[in-house]
Amino acid sequence: xxGRCLDAAGLRDPRLRSxxxxxxxxxxxxxxxxxxxxxxxxxxxxxxxxxLGAFIxxxxxxxxxxxxxxxxxxxxxxxxxxxxxxxxAGQPTEPARxxxxxxxxxxxxxxxxxxxxxDIPEDAVHAAxxxxxxxxxxxxxxxxxxxxxxxxxxxSTTAGWANTMLEPRxxxxxxxLVPISVALQLIDCVHDLVEDLALGRLxxxxxxxxxxxxxxxxxxxxxxxxxxxxxxxxxxxxxxxRARRLVEQGWGYWDLVHPANREFPWLFTHxxxxxxxxxxxVDFDVFAxxxxxDTARRVRVVARSYLRAVWSRRAGAFGRPxxxxxxx
Length: 328
Prior knowledge:
16 helices; mainly alpha; Farnesyl Diphosphate Synthase; single chain
């Protein structure tokens, strides 16, 4: 599959093929869900989306490695930024100290090529990486406005890069994508609450906790004990309603990108909404066993979406032709 996608994208340079191949491997090993969704895109797009996914995953892995101290994570992150900066500038990189850093260099080369191919501004990437660095610290937001600004700096920015690859047909696409990206990040914060608290992070705004007479320590206790008292359930119910309103504000975004690419954001969004439906089914007990997931419904949603994606390609919708710089 990888070779066919690289051929479709016109990637002939052996070094680039090796770099993009590493991105596919990262996706296969670290984010099976994201890799599976690649099949919803035409083969010509998959190498670039693999590079974007690997870039996000690799960066997250450095920031989220609970096995090492914050100081060591910061050192590794700074080395990653220097390596990426050198690749973008066409300069020699520091000698790799580990297999992980060797992997990072391959990823950096694929991501740099993706940036050039899709005209992703270098200053936007640096700004996102700077905002990302805040995750090294014990993080919390006093207000929803603070949370929203953080999401715009990180998640909405990367979503904007994805939007470029999906080939928007209207300027409204970028506008509709913003509330959807905030909603998906909010849902992710609920889904990953236990993991985030273990890293010293609480993304849900403190003002929302206070609304339900909760403190941060109450969430930490609930996560530690694996139980969901009424106040905590009410908090998650509130966040779910907010996420649904945000998705409604961006509804129809997928109709504003190239027909060959529409099912990718449609499915991504609908699977997140399905998670909220499932959470509501257990009265917003985020600590409930995963057996409550509606697997049959998920299969139906995924299967129908995949058939539509395949049909769009058979109908002759393939998306942007291979860029002239792709093989360089």
